[in-house]
Amino acid sequence: MIEVVAGLILDGTGRLLACKRPEGKHLGGKWEFPGGKVEPGESPSDALVRELEEELGIRVETATALTPVVWDYGRGPIRLHPFLCRILSGQPHPHEHSEIRWCGPDELGELDWAEADVPILEEWRAMDTR
Ligand SMILES: Nc1nc2c([nH]c(=O)n2[C@@H]2O[C@H](COP(=O)(O)OP(=O)(O)OP(=O)(O)O)[C@@H](O)[C@H]2O)c(=O)[nH]1
């Protein structure tokens, strides 16, 4: 099982940061929450702080953990650990994604999401995180 973390970054007005995977990569062109694989010896929360610095140049604090999602794209199972996060410093700039976008609830529904993220979006919609 590959452990993966993903951050639901909130802007304080009910919008979430969606990130587009670059063409040519696995799931290229799909939208996801920024994050990545947990390294040996790292907690999921530490992994997310590290990944968001690398991918977006922001420092975050993690808050609520949502329900992990187990998914298999045909390359072996991944377990995706979603966390609500808040930016402590920096403005997000895409270092590894082809595009990033702040989205309200309606806009989120229009994007072509990685399949493992769909249950996470549903859980977030059922919460009141503003
Ligand atoms: N970071 C991230 N990864 C996700 C999300 N949803 C989802 O299915 N994944 C999958 O989780 C795996 C690990 O993500 P990653 O960003 O570290 O992987 P990567 O592209 O560098 O790895 P790769 O070299 O295996 O393609 C990828 O297969 C990715 O498609 C998500 O919301 N965020």
UniProtKB/TrEMBL annotation:
Q: Which reaction does it catalyse?
A: 8-oxo-dGTP + H2O = 8-oxo-dGMP + diphosphate + H(+); 8-oxo-GTP + H2O = 8-oxo-GMP + diphosphate + H(+)
Q: Which UniProt keywords apply?
A: DNA damage, DNA repair, DNA replication, Hydrolase, Magnesium, Metal-binding, Mutator protein
Taking the record's annotation, the residue ranges forming a coiled coil are none
- Which intervals hold domain Nudix hydrolase? 1-126
Q: Which organism is it from?
A: Luteolibacter flavescens
Q: Which SUPFAM superfamilies match?
A: Nudix
Q: Which cofactor does it need?
A: Mg(2+)
Give the enzyme's main class according to its UniProt record, as a single word: hydrolase
Which InterPro entries does its entry note? MutT-like (IPR047127), Nudix_hydrolase (IPR020476), NUDIX_hydrolase-like_dom_sf (IPR015797), NUDIX_hydrolase_CS (IPR020084), NUDIX_hydrolase_dom (IPR000086)
- Report the family membership: Belongs to the Nudix hydrolase family.
Q: What is this protein called?
A: 8-oxo-dGTP diphosphatase
EC numbers for this chain: 3.6.1.55
Asked if the Swiss-Prot or TrEMBL record annotates the protein with the keyword tRNA processing, the reply is: no
Record flagged with keyword Metal-binding:
yes
The UniProt entry, under Pfam families, shows: NUDIX
